[in-house]
Every structure is written in C-alpha cells, then in structure tokens.
Specification:
Layout (H helix, E strand, L loop, with lengths): L1 H47 L6 H9 L9 H31 L11 H41 L5 H37 L1 H5 L12
Length: about 220
C-alpha cells in the first residue's frame, strides 16, 4: 500500500514538473506578448480619449432623472481584459510555486545549494500573486465609487462637481489599468528571466540527485 501511494505521489510530482516547465517555457512568454499588446492598445486609447464619456452625456444623466445610466463601456472592456490576463497569470504561477516548493531541499540536511534562489523565486511569485489579487479587488472599488458619485449627482443637481468627478474617476481608473497591465507584464518577464537563469539550481538542488525533478 505504501509503495502504491509513493508511486502515485511521484507521478503527481512528475506531472507538476511537466506543467511547470510548460508554463515557464511556453505559457508565460505567450502571456507576456498578450500583455504587451494590450498595454500598447490601452495607451493608444487613452491618448485618443476613447475612454472618456462626453460631458454633454454626463449632463443628460444629471438632468434626466429617469434616464438609465450605463457603465463606461471603454473602461469596463479594458477592465475585463486586464482581469482575464491577471486570472490567467495567477493560475499559471500556481504550478510554478508548487514545483519550487516541492523541489526545495531541507536546509537542516545541509542541502542548501539553490535554496537562496528558490526562496527568491517564491518571493517573486508571492509578490506577483498579491499584486494581481489587489488589482482584482480594485475593480469592485471602481464600480462602487463611480456608482456613489452618480447617485450623489442626481441627488444634488445644483452641484456640477459630481459631473466633473465622473470624468476624473474614469480617467484615473483607466490610467491605473494601464499601469497594472505594465506591472504584470514586467513581473512576468523578470520572474521568467530569473528562473531561466537559475534553472539548473531549481531543477537539481545539491543533495537531491534522486529527485524526480531532475532531468
């Protein structure tokens, strides 16, 4: 029974290794290319003002109390696309994290060659994961903040500041999406570069010569 369990465990580890290598060599570069293209597109759209709602439209929302107020389609499209990229990256880095953690030797046994690199990689993955999750949380903050501004705008028709604030919050959030997109793009490139430069230390830590991660 113990042998059967060990066999299944080794098979699971081997599969994790294969998946991690595919993420490292194929999927992360694909995501980086997609993010680079998305970042370039969003920068261009910001420059053209494509993400802005016309002031006349906002004024109609302020005065026509029964008019339905739509979301900013350009901002929400960008947000949904950035969200999709973040979710892809978080899922892909999960397998990298599992691989690095499983292949880490026990330092108390003196097998500490490569551990520093592995710890650095884990810190980078954790930082990327935390940043991605925070960005996802910011999506709901934007929707909630914009909704409150629109509600207040209709309650206080004599205050034009609310109408101006709608344009401001759309501008600020669109710029944040562009920055998040670039930060994720940069984090992926740096993480992959670090792992590829230290791939042998990650695959074959000292004292782990019989590890199933060794190729």
């Amino acid at each position: 029974m113990a042998t059967e369990v060990q066999t299944k465990l080794e098979a699971l580890r081997a599969r994790t290794m294969r998946e991690a290598q595919e993420v490292l060599t194929e999927q992360l570069p694909t995501r980086a290319v997609a993010l680079g293209a998305l970042h370039k597109e969003l920068v261009s759209r910001r420059a053209s003002g494509d993400h802005r709602v016309a002031r006349a439209t906002v004024e109609s929302w302020r005065t026509n109390l029964y008019e339905e107020i739509p979301v900013n389609a350009a901002v929400m499209d960008a947000a949904n696309r950035v969200r999709g990229e973040i979710e892809h990256v978080l899922a892909q880095t999960d397998s990298l994290k599992t691989w690095v953690e499983l292949s880490m030797p026990r330092m108390e046994d003196g097998n500490n060659f490569g551990v520093e690199v592995q710890m650095e990689v884990l810190e980078m993955i954790n930082a990327l994961y935390k940043s991605g999750r925070q960005t996802l949380a910011n999506l709901t903050i934007y929707n909630r903040s914009r909704g409150k501004l629109l509600t207040n705008m209709r309650k206080r028709l004599h205050l034009e500041d609310y109408a101006a604030s709608i344009a401001t919050i759309d501008d600020v959030y669109f710029s944040m999406l562009i920055q998040h997109c670039f930060d994720l793009f940069n984090s992926i490139l740096v993480l992959r570069d670090t792992m590829m430069k230290n791939i042998e230390k990650l695959r074959k830590p000292k004292g782990e010569m019989n590890s199933i991660f060794v190729q």
